[in-house]
Amino acid sequence: MLVRTKSDQVWKQLPEDGVEFCGLRQNDTNGGAGLVRMRKGARFPRHGHPGWEEALMLSGVVNIGGNRLVEGDYLFTEAGETHDAVAEESVVFFVSSEKGIELLSEDGDQ
After folding, report:
1. Model-level pTM greater than 0.85?
2. Is residue 73 one of the residues assigned to a domain?
């Protein structure tokens, strides 16, 4: 059993301005689970998914791949799909992935 209390959680600023990540669990295929926090107007660039990913919105409003998600919404991404994320409001969401992500250039290449 793995427990991460709120006091155990450590937020790390990502290279993208206004985007932070709090890792909760990592698996042996570069995936795992964590929390993402984005300031209003922040953008996480287009990225690909070598495995599935799921997200549950905890607060705020974010646009992920053209889908506007609000508190309580759930998103499942199949392996091979790509998208970006833009925070319409400050947002926090839970994310779990099978194999992590691959950042892509603006033209879609790795």
Report:
1. yes
2. no
